[in-house]
Specification:
Length: 331
């Protein structure tokens, strides 16, 4: 009879667990999204929170050092709705850092990452949760099958990026994959276990593995505000992806160096033979200059590539935090 209270306690804890609805955390990075936030919040309330009564929700919005009124809108929304949590950074740390902060603070059994410009349709959240409930998968991810409304040059470069990275990396990259996805807790914990400073989430999500189901949809244009990605920023992001998930560029110098050395050796033998038969007329200044410039260029390129890796190693070794939080309503 001594353990009766323990049994009661276990029973009530079990009852609590059984009564508790599964919790879904929605993580959404925001940078200068003043015009978008009220529209986004209204859409989420109408399409997700009020429709999916089976779940409890928390909406984690990360203010990534916005220069407009994003933070004050977040404060106002958080006062009206206790499901709304926000984290505000001390400056702009980038979308990757914002997603990381959101995942780290998410308490849900399921965690969804999405943008707040409604390019990631909230209607799909119900389908995602449904598939997680009914299928044997740990993550439901999305990919755009069209790039309608996007500048042609941007689409062409994006395709080239996916072709290259899939050739040189062991991790599979899906063309058109968005960051918009719903994950079970186990996937989120695995993602958070990767302590890298330079985060390339599209690769990290694939690298951690687990069963992923894919939902496809047509590209939707931003509802308000403008894209934060310039062509230069996207190029840097692509380099980030390649350097984070492949060391093949480092082998380029070895490969080209070996070929050039072999050719140089053959050429030397030919020159010696020619000199022995016909003497040594001084000629070939232009070809000498071309070869020197070409090799000089290649050596600089190889050094640059090594530099990219060294720089990342350097940043990682410094162990700076991925983001700095200035304000939040999460305890
Ligand atoms: N974003 C961010 N920090 C940045 C840039 C963007 O948090 O430095 C957020 C932005 O507010 C949006 C999402 O990341 O919610 C995607 O950005 P955007 O719509 O500009 O990108 P695109 O859809 O054009 O790729
Ligand atoms: Mg967008």
């Amino acid at each position: 009879m001594n353990d009766q209270p323990l049994v009661t306690k276990i029973n009530s804890a079990l009852g609590e667990i059984l009564r508790r609805k599964p919790m879904v955390s929605i993580v959404c990075p925001c940078y200068n999204e003043e015009p978008m936030l009220p529209i986004y919040y209204e859409a989420m309330e109408r399409i997700v929170f009020s429709q999916l009564a089976k779940y409890d929700f928390e909406l984690i919005l990360i203010n990534d050092g916005s220069k407009d009124k994003t933070l004050s809108i977040l404060r106002e929304l958080a006062q009206k709705d206790e499901r709304l949590k926000y984290i505000s950074f001390s400056r702009n740390f980038g979308k990757e850092a914002a997603m990381y902060a959101g995942l780290k603070n998410a308490k849900g059994d399921y965690v969804c990452v999405m943008d707040c410009d409604l390019q990631d349709p909230p209607e799909m959240i119900a389908t995602m949760l449904d598939r997680l409930d009914t299928e044997d998968c740990d993550c439901v991810a999305t990919r755009r099958v069209t790039r309608k409304g996007e500048p042609k040059i941007r689409s062409a470069f994006a395709r080239a990026f996916y072709r290259i990275i899939n050739k040189i990396s062991d991790t599979e990259f899906v063309d058109g994959a968005r960051d918009f996805r719903m994950m079970r807790r186990c996937v989120v914990d695995a993602v958070l276990d990767l302590p890298e400073y330079h985060r390339f989430s599209k690769g990290i999500f694939m690298w951690v593995g687990f069963n992923t189901a894919w939902l496809e949809y047509e590209n939707i244009e931003r509802v308000a505000g403008e894209t934060k990605w310039s062509f230069w920023k996207l190029t840097k992001y692509a380099i980030e992806g390649i350097v984070s998930f492949s060391t093949a560029p480092l082998q380029l110098a070895t490969a080209v160096g070996s070929i050039v050395s072999a050719l140089a050796l053959i050429y030397m033998v030919i020159r010696v033979v020619i000199a022995m038969i016909w003497g040594n007329p001084v000629a070939g200044y232009p070809s000498l200059l071309a070869i020197t410039l070409c090799l000089g260029g290649f050596i600089l390129l190889a050094l640059g590539i090594i530099g990219e890796y060294v720089a990342r190693t350097y940043m990682q070794v410094k162990q700076r935090p991925i983001y700095i939080q200035k304000e939040s309503n999460i305890d």
